[in-house]
Fold this protein.
Amino acid sequence: MEPADLLAFNAALAAAMASPGPALLHALRVSLAEGRAAGILTGVGLGAMAAAWTGLALLGLGQLFALVPWLYGALRIVGALYLIWIAWTIWRGADAPVGPGAGVAPGRAVLRGLAINLANPKSALFAAAVLVVIFPAGLGPAEMALIVANHLAVEILFYGAVALILSHGAARAAYLESKPLLDRIAGGILGLLGLRLLLDRP
């Protein structure tokens, strides 16, 4: 494995993270609604699960999904239902006020991030496809560990930057002023993503 391989992997990760999806939408909303600490901790959870999907892909999870299609289908259905439930929760709470110190316990913020990325088994298929294209065959344990650690670092840096930017006064004040509308938009998008995952064919 060459340093250029990691750079190419990071470029693919950056493009994937910046594209609209459940993880980015969740990170944006948490950072705006609950502040910097909650946004950073949510990013830790999102990054840990994304890196875990990469680790599992390196160990052959993509091939397992191909051999046992119902396993992927079951994970996809459970993940889709979870995203739809999150969407309904956001929509239902759209009119609830948010105080200046609103937030959640650190452990819960991390767990929510983990759950959002756990709810999308397509992340494993994406990781498997990217890994096959970028990295040479026959990677050793140390190289696999480096790839996973690199993935975790990139995710945490990305979502940490999102939290730092969006938790500042002007962005948060604008969100709070339009919270009912923005939460219903976020809930609607998450719900549509969940329905798409539920109805999508493997």
